[in-house]
Amino acid sequence: MLDGESSASDWRRTYSDALLKAAIIDRAVRWSWRTHERGVVFEIAFRTEAIRDEFCAQPSVRTALAAVPDPRHGLTITPGG
Q: Is pTM, for the whole model, over 0.70?
């Protein structure tokens, strides 16, 4: 997430607990937060794409992603490989 009208760090403080709870419910195998000068990175890994899709479909995750500080240019979701 990149900073936008508000800071990505503020966004993280608001939504981190909900994202981590959703990750645990959907059996994430690892996750981490990194802060950089223009925002934050949340990396999360699941055993399968189907589990990842379940995570992304959770209402709390959809709400968090809809609330990123710069929804037009500040959110990148990249499937791992």
A: yes
Q: Which helix H or strand E contains 57, and what residues bound it?
A: helix 49-57
- pLDDT, tens only, 60-78: 999 999 999 998 888 888 8
Give whole-number Cα distances, 38 to 2, 7, 17, 34, 76, in Å. 6, 9, 21, 11, 13
Burial of 15 (0-12, 13-18, 19+ CB in 10 A): buried
Cβ–Cβ under 8 Å, residues 76 and 5: no
